[in-house]
Design goal:
- This protein is α+β, with helices and mostly antiparallel strands and 779 residues long.
- The chain has three domains: 346 residues, alpha-galactosidase from lactobacil brevis (Beta-galactosidase, Chain A, domain 5, Distorted Sandwich), CATH 2.70.98.60; 297 residues, TIM Barrel, CATH 3.20.20.70; 96 residues, Golgi alpha-mannosidase II (Immunoglobulin-like, Sandwich), CATH 2.60.40.
- 19% of the residues lie in helices and 30% in strands.
- Strands 8, 9, 10, 11, 13, 14, 16, 17, 21 and 22 form a ten-stranded antiparallel sheet that branches. The chain has an eight-stranded parallel barrel with strand order 23-24-25-28-29-30-31-32.
- Helix 7 runs parallel beside helix 8 and helix 10 packs parallel to helix 11.
- It is an enzyme of class 3 (hydrolase).
- This is Alpha-galactosidase.
Length: 779
């Protein structure tokens, strides 16, 4: 346990707060707190060492200090820096021509000062982390240091998902309180550091202690000010069926913003960004990665200011957002996570992957192999009933798969996508004995049973909508735009949450449903709530997300052993917020493997294979018309932990033996897909190479994918990574044994790509879209 000494601090908002002088192993506090933080410092106060906070594990440090004005000044985020009495590089006070000075503090201009939580209106003209209109109608705020506290572990966020703290005191949290004495506003900044993860978790609580409401328009989760340098960013962009495309470019002067205003985190921009030196590669160089634990409208802004410094802010998108904070109320921001790696982009990804598995994924499933499955969608679409489901169960069992998933089409009146969303009870004609009876019969065959839902949506042609037309997201006197013939339910309303909970709970209570696929097939439009007054309409989208989290949180708490899969037309809500409740995500509706390669490659910058889901799809692809071999379809899906197939009876019969063999291989390697380490070895427009290594390092799976065949290509090799240089590894294809050092430094010859296969050389299959999984085992 940490030891603390509480010392009272005088000054604004401090009459009831304490400073904790921490003696912990991860958070180090040095220096002296001033009695009163103003611009009028005495000579002694101006020269004394102020408070400095150093959050460090064995590899990284996050350091900031309190200026004599009470402003939190950022010093460092990166490789470990031991706690110092003085630091060699700190914010400098100097005169600049035609630049304002902060409230008569000589040569102190906030535009030139790296800050922890910047505000608007007092000499800093860059994008603020906090912006609000007060009762006087202006938007000027001054946040000065009030107190701090160090606590063991990591407090959960109210109403929001967040990373778990580590066991046995292996994480600690610093809470720094800032105050505006004129507004009686208290802002608490949370910083959590982990002993075993190279990551800082940040969030903010805003408490209105005045007698008047304030209107918050910016409440970012974090702000990170970095010194002038030659940075580049990498982000993930896309659209439906083309999510997660990685793009890297320089940071210009001005602002670059990734954002969503659709009510979901979205498929256009994932709520993640990496910021790095221009010389950084996959395996070398400094990288800072930022991701939000949030599933709604977000903004990540990178701004290069007039003096070249870079500001990275992340949080709720301020566009079309406002929050009326009444006296005594507290607003909590989503959590923002910041990773640092000195080992390039792959090093950053290893930090993310381990952290997501250990501190984000639901504990019951973080190491649990995923069942192989048959999904009914592309086998039958809406044309399902009890007899066809039981026939599919027999086929599932014969293939050696472990679970049957009944997709869309099972509930009352659902024969196409124009009707019945919201009426979550079995169609009496298709399932006269109910879904519970079918689930029990499927389970009796030795299979698991899964069921598809889309709880957040409603069709206008449904019993639910006819009974409660005001339960949708919408605005008065305007027609609601539709997507897939459906509208969005207002989950900000308690009664909507309760209705959905009761419907789903009634089905799950039978005890025979092992898996839920939770879908969401449209984004928001005409954003408003019939339950909120005019002053709170811009709270609608965030309140909706709080309602989603509340509903899902109740369900997974009651049914901790049911495997939930997050889906939103594929990757339209693929984020750490949903993954806090659901162990896996349907990565994309693009199930065709060549289209999947860039999606899974992009996702791997943040997400480990343990949270990715895929299935073997029909050919030619319904989305792009490609005719791709079964081998390649199976090989791309191999690098997802949740693996299955969705094929009709003719497709299954045509490739029955090969599909059964793939099912067996998937099961044999299921543990490695969940717990193993994934590495990007090569990615370009025509060639992809990935490495998956078991958690104990004993098995290595090398995926080699070649897109378009060409004549007379060069011979290729690939260098493996993270092997033990002192160990020997046997190649399963030919029993050759190689040293780990040779495989990492010389590389392994890859199969040759050539249509004219006239020798005994090792070739990929002829033609386009070829692949191979190469397996090595440690001796």
């Amino acid at each position: 346990m940490s030891r603390r000494a509480d010392v009272s601090v005088a000054g604004p908002l401090c009459n009831y707060l304490k400073v904790s002088l921490n003696m912990s192993t991860l958070i180090h506090v040095s220096g002296t707190a001033r009695e009163n933080y103003t611009t009028d410092a005495s000579a002694q106060e101006a020269t004394q060492n102020g408070l400095v906070f150093n959050l460090s594990n064995q590899r990284i440090s996050y350091v900031f200090r309190v200026s004599r004005e009470g402003i939190l000044e950022h010093l460092h985020f990166g490789a470990r820096v031991s706690p110092q009495t003085d630091y060699p590089s700190v914010p400098r006070r100097l005169h600049r021509g035609c630049v304002l000075e902060f409230q008569d503090s000589l040569d102190y201009n906030l535009t030139d000062i790296p800050q922890e939580y910047p505000v608007f209106g007092t000499t800093d003209n860059r994008t603020p982390a906090f912006h609000a209109q007060n009762c006087a109608g202006n938007t000027t705020t001054v946040l000065r240091y009030v107190s701090h506290q160090v606590v063991n572990d990591k407090p959960a966020l109210t109403g929001l998902p967040s990373a778990r703290g580590a066991d046995h005191g292996a994480s600690e949290t610093l809470i720094v309180s800032l105050g505006d004495a004129e507004l009686n506003l208290l802002v608490r900044l949370h910083y959590t550091i982990y002993a075993e993860h190279d990551l800082i978790a940040r969030s903010v609580e805003i408490n209105n202690q005045s007698t008047s409401s304030i209107n918050i328009t910016h409440a970012m989760s974090s702000s990170l000010d970095l010194p002038c340098a030659d940075y580049e960013v990498l982000h993930l962009h896309g659209t439906w069926a083309r999510e997660m495309n990685a793009q890297r470019h320089a940071i210009p002067y001005g602002r670059f913003v990734l954002e969503s205003a659709t009510g979901t985190s979205g498929n256009v921009h994932n709520p993640f960004i990496a910021l790095m030196d221009s010389t950084t590669t996959e395996h070398h160089g400094d990288v800072i990665g930022t991701a939000l634990v949030y599933s709604g409208n977000f903004a990540i802004s990178v701004e290069r200011g007039e003096f070249g410094a870079v500001r990275l802010t992340s949080g709720i998108n301020p566009f079309n957002f406002a929050w009326n904070l009444a006296p005594g109320e507290t607003f909590t921001s989503p959590e923002s996570l910041h990773v640092f790696s000195a080992d390039g982009l792959n090093g950053m990804s290893q930090v993310w992957h381990r952290f997501v598995r250990e501190q984000i994924s639901p504990p019951a499933f973080k190491s649990q192999p995923r069942p192989t499955y048959l999904n009914s969608w592309e086998a039958a679409y809406f044309d399902i009933d009890e007899d066809s489901v039981l026939a599919l169960a027999d086929r599932t069992k014969a293939l050696g798969l472990e679970m049957l998933v009944v997709d869309d089409g099972w509930f009352e009146g659902r024969n196409d996508d124009t009707t019945s969303l919201g009426d979550w009870f079995a169609d009496a004609k298709k399932f006269p004995n109910g879904i519970e009876s079918v689930a029990a019969k499927v389970k009796a065959k030795g299979l698991k049973f899964g069921l598809w839902f889309e709880p957040e949506m409603v069709n206008p042609d449904s019993q639910l909508f006819r009974a409660h037309p005001d339960w949708i997201i919408g605005v008065p006197q305007r027609s609601s735009s539709k997507g897939r013939n459906q509208l969005t339910l207002d989950l900000g309303r308690i009664e909507v949450q309760q209705y959905l909970f009761d419907c789903i709970d009634k089905l799950l209570a039978c005890g025979d449903i092992d898996y839920v696929k939770w879908d969401m097939n449209r984004t928001m439009s005409e954003i408003g709530s019939f339950a909120l007054d005019a002053s709170r309409q811009q709270e609608t989208a965030h309140r909706y997300l709080l309602g989603v989290y509340a509903l899902v949180g109740r369900l997974v708490a009651k049914y901790p052993n049911v495997l939930f899969e997050n889906c939103a037309s594929g990757g339209n809500r693929f984020d750490l917020g949903m993954l806090s409740y659901m162990a896996q995500t349907w990565t994309s509706d693009m199930s065709e493997p060549i289209g999947r390669l860039p999606i899974q490659n992009g996702a791997s910058y943040v997400f480990p294979p343990s949270v990715l889901a895929s299935y073997i799809c029909p050919v030619p692809s319904h989305l792009n018309g490609r005719q791709v071999s079964l081998q390649t379809r199976a090989d791309v899906g191999f690098f997802c932990a949740a693996r299955g197939l969705s094929l009709n009876a003719n497709d299954v019969d045509q490739d029955f033996e090969a599909l059964a063999a793939h099912a067996q291989h998937y099961q044999q390697t299921a543990q490695d897909a969940v717990e193993g380490s994934f590495f990007r070895l090569r990615y370009d427009q025509n060639e992809v190479c990935w490495q998956l290594m078991s958690a104990d390092g004993a098995r290595i799976y090398l995926g080699y994918f070649h897109i378009l065949s060409e004549a007379n290509l060069p011979l290729r090799r690939i260098r493996l990574v993270a092997l033990d240089p002192q160990q020997q590894y046997r190649l399963a294809d030919n029993d050759h044994v190689y040293g780990g050092d040779a495989l990492m430094h010389l590389g392994l010859d890859l199969p040759h790509v050539c249509a004219m296969q006239r020798s005994s050389a090792d070739y990929l299959p002829q033609g386009d879209f070829a692949s191979r999984i190469i397996v090595l085992t440690r001796q």
